[in-house]
Amino acid sequence: MELNYKIAIIGQGYVGLPLAISFSKFYHTIGYDKSLDRIDELNREHDSNLEVEVKANELLSFSSNKDDIKDCNIFIITVPTPVKENNLPDLSFVNSASLLVSKYLKKGDIVIYESTVYPGVTEDICVPLLEKESNLVFNKDFYCGYSPERINPGNNSKKVNNIIKVTSGSNDTIANVIDNLYQKIIDAGTFKAPSIKVAEASKVVENIQRDVNIALMNELAIIFDNINISTSEVLEAAKTKWNFLDFKPGLVGGHCIGVDPYYMIYKSKEFGYFPDLINKSRELNNSIPNFIIGKTIELLSIHKKNIEKSKVLILGYTFKENCNDIRNTQVEKILSGLNHLGCFVDIYDPLIKMEHNNLIENPFKASNKYDAIIAAVSHNEFLHYTINDFKQISNENLVLLDIKSMYSFSTWKF
Ligand SMILES: NC(=O)c1ccc[n+]([C@@H]2O[C@H](COP(=O)([O-])OP(=O)(O)OC[C@H]3O[C@@H](n4cnc5c(N)ncnc54)[C@H](O)[C@@H]3O)[C@@H](O)[C@H]2O)c1
Fold it and tell me: What are the domain boundaries of the chain?
């Protein structure tokens, strides 16, 4: 079968595009996305996520025309899995991608899911959709697999090809086929999980582990703040122990760490078990924007600055450093909280180009002065600012809240 692989990657975002480019070095690959704008830019060899270089190649094409995937025999689904307003899993994208694929499914085809889900989504929710529309029988006529993605946008050393990839398949033979397929593009090698559910669970566990550990650091940071000692100094000392885990306090946004735990909470509640620790960690991490707002007010008062009508600058808007992804950014909560208190807030983020009332051009090249500055995201550009740069854009006493502990001269840091 191998020589005849024709691969369709459904969803050309942060996960799907690098995958399409990698597979197209070996196989005919179609990067399909329902967004015309996205396909247009890819056809112009531009990735607005600024993650990969898009280069035309005779085995690679991008399309938003559904029929273009009809001759494919491997379908890889890389669509979003967000949560709804009430933090329940929103499976509408994986469902509609499954329905799309089901229309073109043929005997012998393989459907691999990469979107992050709770254990059971592939076999219990997506497979019935694939069967219903295609009139084919799972594990007899067509097969499935699950292979979670671990890329880390904004970090050049963690790309799809150099991170070990977990693979799985709906039976032993297919698990091997899928594992061999990924081995072709993953230099770091693959890990074949014993089942699809194990592979699904392994991905959420990775992000839950981070969320819980960051929540612990955030809780300690609140305690240390009351004791009036610096959390970063405490952690610097503690991490000299060989088995201390190097987690830091901070804002947890984005579409992974701040979202995936809700998938497991949902699944667990189905069986009547309420996962207190996972849930509490989510609550704690979600409370950090309010903690930062409270800290800003406290410092403005200490420095005898009026809270109402004070001018605040926030450095960074994305959910993490050195990438332009703003999904679920916790900076928005800090902004709206401060606005609510009557502060005038400007935000500077050199990595994003979008319409937003509060976004400004480089404040260090302008004449505005601020009562408080919140350094929220550690983009590389921000690391070079000196105390004089900050003084130059500050009203009287510099009030610099340093969420990412970037500066030795900050007024307050975690
Ligand atoms: N971004 C990451 O760093 C990362 C890392 C690991 C895992 N993941 C997971 O991978 C999945 C995809 O994440 P992402 O960041 O690439 O999302 P994304 O929003 O960057 O890209 C998803 C793309 O899918 C397209 N899409 C949505 N529904 C579609 C449909 N029915 N048919 C065709 N295209 C459709 C969208 O237009 C979009 O371009 C999510 O489950 C996410 O949790 C993301």
Answer: 2-194, 231-413
Q: Dihedral sign for Cα 264, 265, 269, 271, please.
A: positive
Residue type, 301: S
Estimate to the nearest angstrom the gap between the alpha carbon of 206 and the chain centroid.
Answer: 13
The CATH number of 231-413, from 3.40.50.720, 3.30.499.10, 1.20.120.430, 2.60.40.10, is: 3.40.50.720
pTM of the model: 0.95
The DSSP symbol for 106 reads -
Q: Relative to the CA of 94, which ligand 1 atom is closest?
A: 31
CB of 93 closer than 6 angstroms to any ligand 1 atom: yes
Three-state DSSP state, 159: coil
Residues 314-354 have pLDDT tens digits of 999 999 999 999 999 999 999 999 999 999 999 999 999 88
Q: Is 126 a catalytic residue?
A: no
Task: Confirm or reject: Cβ of 38 under 6 Å from ligand 1.
Answer: yes
Question: What is the per-residue pLDDT across 163-196, written as a single tens digit (0 to 9) for each?
Answer: 999 999 999 999 999 999 999 999 999 999 999 9
pLDDT at 2 over 80: no
Query: Are 2-194 and 231-413 equal in CATH topology?
Result: yes
Q: Give the Å distance between the CA of 125 and the centre of ligand 1.
A: 18
Neighbours of 37 (CB within 10 A): 10
Atom of ligand 1 nearest to the CA of 327: 19
**Domain 2-194 part of CATH 3.40.50.720:** yes
Choose one of 68, 77, 149 to mutate for the ligand 1 pocket test, by most ligand atoms within 8 angstroms of C-beta: 149
101 CA to centre of ligand 1 in angstroms: 16
